[in-house]
Write a structure and sequence with these properties.
The chain is of the alpha/beta class and 438 residues long. It has a domain of 242 residues: Glycoside hydrolase/deacetylase (TIM Barrel, Alpha-Beta Barrel). Strands 1, 2, 3, 4, 5, 6, 7, 8, 9 and 10 form a ten-stranded parallel β-sheet that branches. The protein has a two-stranded antiparallel ribbon with strand order 11-16. A hairpin with a 5-residue loop joins β12 and β13. The longest helix has 19 residues. The radius of gyration is 48 Å and the shape is elongated. The termini are far apart.
């Protein structure tokens, strides 16, 4: 019996055995795939620490590589070439209409041992606000298109990733009711932002070093991703990371035995908790004794001794006493006005000096002017031979307006005031009112 059990374990290892670097033909220094884990979508329906509380049961320095939005030649073809050269297995979340357009790439990815998954039919970035019926059509059409392109319905897993990771609870409820496993991510490389290849490698490695393990999101339709992938795989091998391949459990390949805590996402401490502002403290018991208030001391009330005599103060009248031995404690003396201050009233005989002329600023001193006699102007001759009088219809010697002599009429000007006048500043041009057209 024991021999049969050992033989069964060896057979299972051969069936799901990893593609080690030594087994990679033509590239003995390849990264390879360290192991393969089989998961049951019915038991763990939401994965990815970016949005959910569970992720894949990975060990430290293990990475699962996923690609979205394909297939699209020549970039998806180049990605498959690089993965084959390094003997790395990945998961491809394909768009349904892309799979129908390029079925040869779907068949190649499946033939080379990669996992095929669904990324909707048309990749709409409206999953967070569309109705359940609309989401259902996108999900089911995507599965149907990928299966039709492959020609083998059992070759497509029940893994699904929402386009743009734009989740909503109603759609997630539908996905779980159908038994699909919804994938999010643990970290990204931002390769959809059209950044350079070296920047993709830098971001992926930096975020992987921060987490230590997880699901990496890439896009096989981006040219920069195809350029960055060889460097990224070499850096992963140089830093001691291992690739894990994820497949769906089936009767021929049962699920990998794991513990529940392996699926739970361990949140990294934040900057505040790491710096000690709010440390995590393990509390053995939260049962605390009931609070007991101390009895007030007699010294709080100014009582010097148990007999009830006060330290300071005078004896209150008998009618105002609360008890026979009560005495009142006076407040400490407060100086309401400094005693050293001495006010001197001004003498009534003091006379204020007269103001000097230099205390005022005079702009101009007006003087009485003698009346000026003006002569009427000569009439201006027009072309038709008539003359235009410059005088108005007011009779001679009168004024058209009060205080304003009519133009062309002789007479004395009104007297101007005599004395000091304060000249006000003239208003600016923007504040002055200009006369409008007649």
């Amino acid at each position: 019996m024991r021999i049969k059990f050992v033989a069964y374990c060896l057979l299972a290892f051969v069936a799901t055995g990893p593609a080690e670097a030594a087994d990679c033909r033509g590239n003995p220094g390849a990264l390879g795939t360290s192991r393969t884990i089989a998961v049951d979508p019915a038991e763990h329906q939401f994965l990815g620490a970016f949005q959910y509380r569970e992720s894949l049961p990975l060990d430290d320095r293990e990475v699962v590589i996923t690609f979205d939005d394909g297939p699209l030649p020549p970039y998806s073809s180049r990605v498959l070439d690089i993965l084959a050269a390094e003997c790395v297995k990945a998961t491809f979340f394909m768009v349904g209409r892309m799979a129908r357009t390029y079925p040869q790439l779907v068949k190649r990815a499946h033939a080379e041992g990669h996992t095929l998954a669904n990324h909707s039919q048309n990749h709409p970035l409206t999953f967070h606000r569309m109705t359940v019926d609309q989401a259902k059509q996108e999900v089911e059409d995507g599965f149907a298109s990928i299966r039709a392109a492959l020609g083998e319905p059992g070759g497509v897993s029940d893994f699904f990733r929402i386009p743009g990771l734009l989740r909503q609870e109603a759609v997630e409820t539908y996905l779980s009711s159908k038994g699909y496993m919804t994938w999010s991510v643990d970290f990204m490389a931002d390769d959809w932002r059209r950044i350079r290849a070296d920047e993709i490698v830098r971001r992926a490695l930096h975020r992987l070093e921060s987490r230590g393990k997880g699901i990496l999101l890439l896009h096989d339709i981006q040219p920069a991703t195809a350029v960055a992938l060889p460097t990224l795989l070499r850096e992963l091998k140089a830093r001691g990371y291992k690739i894990v391949h994820v497949v769906q459990a089936n009767p021929e390949q049962p699920k990998t035995a794991t513990l529940p805590e392996q699926w739970t996402v361990a949140r990294a401490p934040t900057a505040k908790t790491a710096s000690g502002i709010w440390p995590h403290v393990q509390i053995a018991s939260v049962t605390l004794p009931p609070p007991v208030l101390e009895a007030p001391s007699m010294n709080n009330f100014g009582i010097a001794d148990p007999a009830g005599t006060y330290e300071h103060g005078w004896v209150a009248p008998i009618g105002d006493r609360l008890r026979a031995d009560d005495r009142e404690v006076p407040l400490p003396p407060v100086a309401t006005w400094p005693p050293s201050l001495h006010l001197v009233a001004a003498s009534s005989s003091d006379v204020l000096p007269a103001p000097d002329a230099t205390n005022f600023r005079y702009s101009r001193v007006w003087k009485q002017r003698l009346p000026v006699t003006r002569t009427a102007r000569k009439p201006i001759a027009k072309k038709d031979g008539t003359t235009a009088s410059t005088a108005t219809s007011a009779p001679k010697g009168t004024t058209g307006t009060i205080g304003t002599p009519t133009r062309g009429v002789t007479g004395p000007r009104p007297a101007r005031p005599v004395g000091h006048q304060i000249q006000l500043p003239k208003p600016t041009a923007s504040l002055s009112q200009r006369p409008g057209p007649n």
